[in-house]
Design a protein that fits this description.
Elements: E1 21-23, E2 29-33, E3 36-40, E4 46-51, E5 56-62, E6 68-73, E7 77-81
Antiparallel strand pairs: 1-2, 2-3, 3-4, 5-6, 6-7
């Protein structure tokens, strides 16, 4: 790895750290972090945060069309419908 750069900072003062990450078909990055799923454009611009009542641990795209985002947390699994499909393995 050479010529690395800082991509994003997830600082809110809330509990949680960046962990699970996934990418959608437009190249946007979804990362678990403080209070929710943080979404970034490929250039690192923060598009927004999907907030949850628990600290999320990981996420995965699913469903027939890849537009469901499944999120694991301490005691729950959440599912959210997205407009943009995710890239799946």
């Amino acid at each position: 790895l050479e010529n690395g750069r800082l991509f994003a900072v997830l600082k809110t003062g809330e509990e949680g750290v960046p962990d699970g990450m996934k990418v959608d078909t437009q190249g946007n990055l979804y990362s678990t972090g403080p209070a929710g799923i943080w979404i970034f454009r490929p250039d690192g611009t923060h598009l927004g945060t999907i907030r949850f009542p628990e600290v999320p641990a990981n996420c995965a795209f699913g469903g027939r069309d890849g537009r469901w985002l499944y999120v694991t947390a301490r005691t729950s699994v959440y599912r959210i419908r997205l407009k943009i499909p995710g890239i799946r393995p």
